[in-house]
Design goal:
This protein has about 400 residues and is α/β, with parallel strands linked by helices. Helices cover about 45% and strands about 15% of the residues. Helix 10 crosses helix 15. The structure holds nicotinamide-adenine-dinucleotide and magnesium ion. Nicotinamide-adenine-dinucleotide binds next to helix 1, helix 6 and helix 10.
């Protein structure tokens, strides 16, 4: 029995993970469930999945969670706060940790799972963007495994021998990350001046949390994924290419020296990547409909529009700058996206905020988690200053 901790259980990835787990009660059990503030949703999940531990990140809500669980007849352990979340990721209650918290808030629990040698299923891309080398060191020191859940990286993992080959020795020429282009593909800057958070969150192919939906609309999501691929596969920036493929049926590709291009295809449903990562190296049913290629042809491809979607260019810039520039990029983006979702920043200004903060805080070497978190705080403050000036 594989005992699974789902960090961010009330989110989109969390829900999809629990759906796959529930299809295989003989293989998987959700033993730890966590959420930020959604007490009601977390209680419902505990009723359905009967974990041994439920953690609510906001300590003010622990008593209410305990009361609701008792009323529902669920007798699991209850904890709250940041430290409890981190402890849950490393606890003996789980063998596998699904890191599905959104944003930098997921960094410490992701690192804790890695250090504890868990099988780490990584959806929380912000943590590897911020702390790539530190996270990889933690995985190797802990002796566990890191399996990507992000669909593009999961696709590349599936197309590489053994999941994570030495790219040079394996003759890899390019990693081709596909991008749907988001809801605003084909639009000009003038057409994007007035778009609202709801417009940005209407993704054509995927149903996701609001932060990643906005990132998909700005193409920052693809930028974060380029940085994620660089760390996960030890790939130099020149080897990574982004290709817009609006149907989201090819989830990414690997091109080899002999001209072969291996692609992983499937319907746009995160349960495929999640089921693959949960069961790897075996395969299990994910509840995903079979792909009917005859009904979806022809497949379309185009280059990304870096002039309109500047966030992607900024992510490449941060990756080339190296050091903690990706962490600065990520922090500024999180603040800008939050402001956009709150109706306080125009869509096109998200890139302006990120660009200004990157210029204000030039790249420094990554030393340890503490200095990285300080840098994250500095970048957030800088982004808030830019926002105050802009409004
Ligand atoms: P979501 O907003 O739907 O869910 C986020 C989860 O994190 C919730 O359970 C929430 O309670 C928890 N959370 C939020 N802030 C927290 C905090 N400060 N402390 C503790 N918990 C907190 O997000 P999502 O779409 O499921 O995305 C989760 C992660 O997976 C993101 O990093 C995203 O980039 C990545 N991802 C998502 C998808 C997708 O299809 N949704 C695909 C690939 C990668
Ligand atoms: Mg992705």
């Amino acid at each position: 029995m594989n005992r699974v901790a789902v960090l961010g259980a009330t989110g989109s990835i969390g829900g999809n993970t629990l759906d796959v787990i529930a299809r295989h009660p003989e293989r998987f059990r959700a033993t730890v469930l966590t959420a930020h503030r959604q007490v009601e949703a977390l209680t419902e999940l505990c009723v359905r999945h009967r974990p041994e531990l439920a953690v609510i990140a906001d300590p003010a809500l622990e008593a209410e969670l305990a009361r609701r669980l008792a009323a529902a007849g669920v007798h699991c352990e209850v904890a709250s706060g940041h430290a409890a979340l981190t402890a849950a990721a490393a606890s003996t209650l789980c063998d596998t940790v699904v890191a599905a918290i959104v944003g930098a808030a997921g960094l410490e629990s992701t690192l804790a799972a890695a250090r504890a040698g868990k099988r780490l299923l990584l959806a929380n891309k912000e943590s590897i963007v911020m702390a790539g080398p530190l996270l990889l060191q933690a995985v190797s020191a802990g002796g566990g495994a890191l399996i990507p859940v992000d669909s593009e990286h999961n696709a590349i993992f599936q197309c590489l021998p053994g999941g994570r080959a030495n790219l040079v020795r394996s003759g890899v020429r390019r990693l081709i990350l596909t991008a749907s282009g988001g809801p605003f593909r084909g639009r000009t800057r003038a057409q994007l001046a007035q778009v609202t958070p709801d417009d940005a969150c209407k993704h054509p192919n995927w149903v996701m949390g609001r932060k990643i939906s906005v990132d998909s609309a700005t193409l920052m999501n693809k930028g974060l994924e380029v940085i994620e691929a660089h760390h996960l596969f030890q790939a130099p920036v020149e080897v990574i290419e982004v290709l817009v493929h609006p149907q989201s049926l090819i989830h990414s590709m690997v091109e080899y020296a002999d001209g072969s291009v291996l692609a992983q295809l499937g319907n746009p449903d995160m349960r495929t990547a999640i089921a693959h990562a949960l069961a790897w190296p075996e395969r299990v049913d994910a509840g995903v409909a079979p792909l009917n290629l005859a009904a979806c042809a022809p497949l379309v491809f185009e280059p990304p529009d870096l002039g309109t979607f500047r966030c992607l260019a900024l992510a490449f810039q941060a990756l080339r700058a190296g050091g903690d520039a990706p962490a600065v990029l990520n922090a500024a983006n999180e603040v800008a996206v939050e402001a956009f979702l709150a109706g306080a920043l125009p869509f096109l200004s998200i890139a302006d905020v990120v660009e200004t903060v990157l210029a204000e805080l030039p790249a420094q070497a990554v030393v340890d988690v503490q200095t990285l978190c300080e840098r994250d705080r500095d970048a957030r403050e800088a982004a808030r200053r830019v926002l105050r000036k802009a409004c």
